[in-house]
Amino acid sequence: MTTADELVRAGIRPVKRRVEVGLLSRRGVVGVDIGEKVTAGRRTGQVGIVVYVRRKLPAARLLASDLVPSEIEGIATDVVADDVVLHRALLDAEFPPARGAERHRQVLGGISLGPWRTVLLSPPDAPRPGEYAIVGTLGVLATARTRRPNVTCASYLPLSGTSGPHVTQIMGLTTFHAACVDDNWAVGDEMVHPSRVDGGTRAGDVVGTLCRAALSGSVDGAAVLLAPGRSYRPSIVDIGPVIGTAAAARGTVVRKRGRTTGLTTGRIASVDATVLMDYRDGLGVRVLRDQIRIEAVGGIIGDYGDSGSAVVDPDNRVVGLYVAGNSSGTVAFASPIGKVLDELDVDLITD
């Protein structure tokens, strides 16, 4: 049954979509959402358009063109100070890898995963100029959709591939920015677990190769084709078997298991978040729309290295793929799993 609150949000949605490009062009704005207006730390009960900014500044310090009006087309606005950052992690290739990293015999969700290749970074992308190894999280397992037999790889959308006899292909899903990293990525890039950051080696830890990728207006995702004979299980560490998928619903308590923070819990606050993401590395600034905003339930929801985690509901149904969060780890953003599967042209593997 549709609630009065959901009806209000449905009415705001088209207005938000019309004005969000203009709002995102204002200095310091990093996101536009639909949420409850908060005044002096208190919830007002009034639902409106929420504008996220890196730092709230007095009106006197802003140009008139950068001010957010108090209402838009009769809809109240709220300006909230927060940031949005990609939650992959990196390590200078000259430094020793992390100690005590997990090593799993089977490939399953919630484990560290990263490309074997390193990337050349310099400030502000990294603390100092040098070669860096990248790590994220393998979220969940998938397989190529049967309607597209033996599609083995793709670059940017639309997907392309070869045809032939149907072959069951097992893939691990993660994010584009954790697996592809920059504009030098290629189908066939080797992926290792543990990641290179966590002490993985090319000799024995290559779990597969980059097969598909999507960086679009609503999805940040990639698929890694598991190496032949590699043992796998359609389950997530600390969470259990994956049952299926579900549409994200506001108010749902969700969990994710990431390489860095492990098992954490949050609550879906919105399914309408539009965020401005700086992918740097030759990819530039991108806008991701219709993202799931998740607020931590006690402590933090995620941190650098958790990108790619599967976000699941209480029934172990996947609702999203963890993409980014704020610097403090109290807020996360995830791409809806349905859109991820569609753009990568895969189906989830369930228990």
Task: Reconstruct the topology from this structure.
Layout: H1 4-24, E1 29-39, E2 42-53, E3 71-72, E4 75-81, E5 85-86, E6 89-92, E7 107-109, E8 111-115, E9 119-121, E10 130-138, E11 140-144, E12 170-174, H2 176-179, E13 190-192, E14 206-215, E15 220-226, E16 232-236, E17 240-241, E18 244-245, E19 253-258, E20 262-278, E21 285-296, E22 310-312, E23 317-325, E24 331-336, H3 337-344, E25 346-348
Parallel strand pairs: 2-4, 7-16, 18-23
Antiparallel strand pairs: 1-2, 1-20, 3-4, 5-23, 6-10, 8-10, 8-13, 9-10, 11-12, 11-25, 12-15, 13-14, 14-15, 16-17, 19-20, 19-22, 20-21, 21-24, 22-23, 23-24
Overall description:
The chain has 351 residues and is mainly β. The chain folds into 2 domains: 79 residues, 2-Layer Sandwich (GMP Synthetase, Chain A, domain 3), CATH 3.30.300; 268 residues, Thrombin, subunit H (Beta Barrel). It is built from 3 helices and 25 strands. Strands 6, 8, 9, 10, 11, 12, 13, 14, 15 and 25 form a 10-stranded antiparallel sheet that branches. Strand 14 and strand 15 form a beta hairpin. The longest helix is centred in the N-terminal third of the chain and has 21 residues. The chain starts with a helix and ends with a strand. The relative contact order is 0.16. About 5% of the residues have low confidence. InterPro entries: Peptidase_S1_PA, Peptidase_S1_PA_chymotrypsin. This is Serine protease.
